[in-house]
Amino acid sequence: MSITFSSRELITHDQQLKFLGTMAGDQVGKKNSRSTYCREYKAFGGTDEVRNKIFESMQNSYDGKEIKKIGDHYSFTPYRLRDGRNFGTLPTTWQGGGFFLTLKKLSDADERMSSLEYITQVLGPQLESITGLSVEELVKQFCAYGQSYLLKYFFEPIDLPQDGDLVIYPGAEDSHPHYGIFRESSRNWNSPSGGTVESKWEWWRSPYVFQHDIFFVPPLYGKVAKFYRLKSEKVNVDTLAIKTHPVDDNAPSLTSNMTYNVQDDGSLILNTTKKNIERRKIVDEYSGNILNSKLPEIKHLSYIKFFGVCHHYAFGRILSTYGMCKDMPSPEIYGKKILKKYFTVTTSPQKGDLVVYYYSSSITHWGIYLGSDMVESKWGSGSVYRHAIFDAPSEYGVTARCFRLKDGLTVNSLAGNLKQDSQSK
After folding, report:
1. Contacts 24+ apart (CB under 8 A), 43-52
2. Least CB-packed of 82, 158, 187, 425 within 10 Å?
3. Which residues of 89-111 are buried (b: 16+ CB within 10 A; e: fewer)?
């Protein structure tokens, strides 16, 4: 492994990485090959007090200035404290106790950027290279689908960190991890072997990016930091972005089978055979990985943590917004109008088309067609699954229809039309 420091400087005899920054925490031993490099905060001296003061400054700051001030105030400068006093023999007993640097101030347009958005911008060229997707689209995916999605497709565990690696504070409050970039800082009094984190602290209108000891952060970011490296191999773009395709006149047609019958109007009606009823009972009774073990054909996409419901997920996939799709009329209320105006029923669906479920005449569920009778959809407020068309909860009904964009429409024109529709409501 290539690292900046010599092994003599950086690694102890028992293979511990020597972070000597005053708030660097302790290295946590790896449990198995799937574990990654990790450090854990250990309080000593006045470090708890310093972290609490950081939090207090955040509560009293609406523009980031108090955060910057508290960081500058509590960090050391080489050989001398900021008020002019020389270091004592035990410098951690003095005011201070960590490395902290105001790295840069963002523009007004970027001051609301989250830590996740910031690290995506920093790693943008590398991410674009392995995915073929724009940074803007990747930011939307990461913010919508969360940490597990990020780690599954884009990053891998490591034994030792090097400059540019991802740092995640997974224990941050409100289920929103804090993200940063590992920096091999120059050796100095604060951090004799280097090793800091560059991150944008999330606070309302805070424009500052800081470089700091790993745990010179507010306590709400937690006591654990984990390190990962960006993968070098290409990522399958079609897996990441399920988009509508040009109409293929040779796309295979759905035909009646043991699972469903195809009606003249394009509706698919579930055959209520004993086998089909039993499968639906299993779907109704179990969820998540247990359901996956009972019916292996159903894939539980546990790495996607999405807070919307089925129509948010489906339209987010089609429109490449990946979020809550606020710039469109609610499909819960206007679903039938949206389908009538912009889509047409098809019995030859292609990957990226809509699959809509009905109970009686009411729409109950939305999904995305993947091909070969498979659908990707979010079940209520729960998880996202890949499943056969009718391997879905009974409450979604026994009728489904596939829809594709009408001729002449594109994803971009659809997004624009839906936005206009929402503004006219």
Report:
1. 44/92, 45/92, 45/93, 45/97, 46/92, 46/97, 47/22, 47/23, 47/97, 47/98, 47/215, 48/219, 50/23, 50/74, 50/97, 50/98, 50/216, 51/215, 51/216, 51/217, 51/218, 51/219, 52/219
2. 425
3. eebbebebbbbbbbeeebeeeeb
Domain boundaries, the chain: 7-230, 242-423
Write out the two tokens for 354: 């809509």
| Helix axes of 124-131 and 115-122: crossing angle, nearest 10 degrees | 70
Q: Where are the beta strands (DSSP E) in 213-290?
A: 224-230, 260-262, 268-270
Tell me which DSSP letter residue 30 carries: P
Rounded to whole angstroms, how far apart are CA atoms 308 and 143? 12
Residue 87: band (very low, low, confident or very high) from pLDDT cuts 50, 70, 90: very low
Phi, psi for residue 281 in degrees, rounded to 5: -65, -40
- Residue 368 near residue 352 (C-beta atoms within 8 A): yes
Residue of 174 and 281 predicted with greater confidence: 281
Are 414 and 421 contacting, i.e. CB atoms less than 8 angstroms apart? no
CB atoms within 10 A of CB 144: 21
**For the whole model, what pTM was predicted?**
0.83
Give the pair of three-digit tokens for residue 282.
Answer: 């299993």
Which candidate, 248, 418, 410, places its Cα nearest to that of 326? 418
- Residues 318-340 pLDDT 10s: 999 998 888 899 999 999 999 99
Q: Which residues in 330-358 are b (16+ Cβ under 10 Å) and which e?
A: ebeebbeebbeebbeebbbbbbbbbbbbb
| CA angle, 142 then 25 then 112, to 5° | 35
pLDDT tens digits, residue range 140-157? 999 999 999 999 999 999
Compute the distance between CA of residue 7 and CA of residue 190 in angstroms, rounded to an integer: 20
Rounded CA separation 62/58 (Å): 8
**What is the distance between the alpha carbons of residues 181 and 422, in angstroms, rounded to a whole number?**
39
Measured distance CA(193)–CA(158) in Å, rounded = 19
Q: Which residues contact 240 (CB under 8 A, 6 or more apart)?
A: 131, 133, 141, 153
Tokens read off for 325: 């799709």
Contacts of 142 (CB under 8 A, 6+ apart): 116, 120, 149, 150
Euclidean distance between CA atoms 57 and 70, whole angstroms: 7
